[in-house]
Amino acid sequence: MGTILLSRLNDFWKKDRLFSIPIFAQQMSRIRFLLIMRYLHFTSEMESEDPLFKIRSLIDYFNNKMVECYYPAAQLTLDESMVLWRGRLSFRQFIKNKRHKYGIKLYMLTEPDGLILKLRVYTGGKDLEVAGKGHAEKVVMDLLYKKINSGHEIYMDNFYNSFGLAKKLHDKKTYGTGTLRKNLKGNSF
To answer: Can you tell me the mean pLDDT for 156-179?
Structure first.
């Protein structure tokens, strides 16, 4: 469903010749799919300080499973992505230059072909591990946690890259490539 874009969920089960994509109906009925989507819930906890408490276990499971079952090639990319979300959410972002202007911001470590190796949901200032001064550098170090000292090459844009980060990565046998913002503190020569 993420690859084949249709305007409504019900369109995936249409039998009209023009819309027919039989694989969805072969796997699961429309009613069953909608019921699963309606009742799917990921937590047994009550309220928590963590804004992601309902899906934290799923995100951690994904990140741990990728480390456990897949080791990437030397070249890695680091970027952010927006997941469309128009509902109410305390950490919903607005970024005017993105295709989906409103949504949930994800920081992702990927392979150049797009395979996601690790992700982190941006929750604003509520995420104490990466919030505050040096936010971008903390995000990079968090996403690279188990990939440091392995000779990887990291490609990133000017949001993350800085002279200090490049030096820190180089000292840990990890190579960083990307543009530097001249007006960022510590980047002028």
So the answer is: 86
